[in-house]
Amino acid sequence: MTIFIKYLDSNASELWDKYVYDHPGGILYHLFSWKRTIEKTYGHKTYYLAAFNKNSEESLTGILPLIHLKHFIFGNSLISMPFFDMGGILADNEEIEKALLGEAIKLGKSLNVDSIELRHSRACPSFEKFDFSNPIVCTLKTHKVRMLLKLPESSEILMKSFKSKLRSQIKKPIKEGLESKIGGLELLDEFYKVFLINMRDLGSPVHSKKLLENVLEQFKEHTRILIVHKDNNPYAASIVFGFKDTLENPWSSSLQRYRRLSPNMLLYWTMLEYACDSKYKYFDFGRSTPEEGTYRFKQQWGAQPEPLHWNHIHLNGKPVNEEASEKSRFNIAIQCWQKLPVTVTGILGPMIRKNIGL
Q1: At what angle do helices 188-202 and 342-353 cross, to 10 degrees?
Q2: Residue of 12, 5, 59, 49 lying closest to 33 (CA atoms)
Q3: Between the CA of residue 144 and those of 35, 147, 288, 305, what are the distances in Å?
Q4: Taking the mean position of all CA atoms in its chain, how far away is CA 193?
Q5: Closest Cα to residue 46, out of 13, 73, 72?
Q6: What is the CA radius of gyration of the chain?
Q7: In this model, does residue 328 exceed pLDDT 80?
Q8: Which residues contact 110 (CB under 8 A, 6 or more apart)?
């Protein structure tokens, strides 16, 4: 097979998206609108690689979206996809995977990046067979998992499957007068109010509100905002993405000062209820580290871990111990960030967060 690679622009978005929908491994983060969303919000350069069979230039055989994050502190990388758990190569076979991987390395060298990070939900055998020339080193990380719950036919069946303790935890905020609602862009202000405070309390820079607005506009058919509130005051909030047979939750937050009312329990039940009643087959709770607090929280709902496969290609030699260096580097920064006024983190946060790929 003769394969050639092209860099596609918005004129080919329909062709690209059709491939994503038709491919069994296609996910929301492969869709072409992320190119527009990330460029429009953060101004990062994007490179959308497409593989074609030379005998049929109108028929895609593979894709790879790449986003270039370059910052003097946070590094110089090509990532697919930054800010989310998955992305990476989508192809018809291993030969095409290798062709796209080779083109990504070629692009990375031309941009003088330090690394290429491809985030997959599955193992890619082509990486083991690829001839990485010296000094390039490829490492695979599977230390993070996505927590996936297979859903029954209805929310009533799901509720009955829970242990009595979990059911009582869900009912508690309802008895306290908390309610939930589901909507779209009109609920963004309420979501961001909770999100901004929660990210400050966690010591993490917050995403730009403009990113979320652009996501809700570009993916309006796929996204919903959920709010848990009392007397019109939001206590907890989340954004969910629906694609094919899966509803997933990339962003959720609750206010610590209302923790005794358990708004988070009602929030997660509302997401699961919506997923069941909308006939999704799976709910993806998002990324966790095994045996940590968020992992156990998601596990109590019945979610099962599935390893994420993140391939790191280091173009300049041996990789550093990123986990150890990041932990020591950011512990002090986190403690300082938690002491800042919320209004300050709302201004500074997006300027920092745009350059952090996680």
Answers
A1: 90
A2: 12
A3: 25, 10, 6, 9
A4: 21
A5: 13
A6: 21
A7: no
A8: none
Predicted model pTM: 0.92
Query: How far apart, in Å, do the first and last CA atoms of the chain sit?
Result: 36
What's the CA gap between 146 and 273, in Å, rounded? Answer: 20
Give dist(CA 101, CA 97) in Å, integer: 6
Neighbours of 314 (CB within 10 A): 18
Unique residue bearing structure tokens 């599955």? 122
> Would residue 235 be called left, alpha or beta, if left means φ above 0 and alpha means ψ between -120 and 50 degrees?
alpha
- Reply yes or no on whether the pLDDT at 325 is more than 50: no
Q: Which residues, in sequence order, are CB contacts of 111 under 8 Å at separation 6+?
A: 68, 76, 78
Q: 199: cis peptide before it, omega within 30°?
A: no
Lowest-pLDDT range of 65-69, 249-253, 322-326:
322-326
DSSP notation for 112-128? T-SEEEEEESS--HHHH
Beta-sheet strands, E only, within the chain: 3-7, 45-53, 56-71, 75-80, 90-91, 115-120, 137-141, 145-150, 179-183, 223-230, 233-243, 246-254, 282-288, 304-307, 309-314
How far, in Å, CA of 283 to CA of 149, rounded? Answer: 5
Name the amino acid, one letter, at 175: K
How far is 90 from 26, CA to CA, in rounded Å? 7
pLDDT at residue 214 tops 50: yes
pLDDT in tens, 25-73: 999 999 999 999 999 999 999 999 999 987 666 789 999 999 999 998 8
CA pair distance 279, 247, nearest whole angstrom: 10
Mean pLDDT of the chain: 93
In degrees and rounded to multiples of 5, residue 348 shows phi and psi of -80, -35
The Cα–Cα gap between 53 and 119 comes to 25
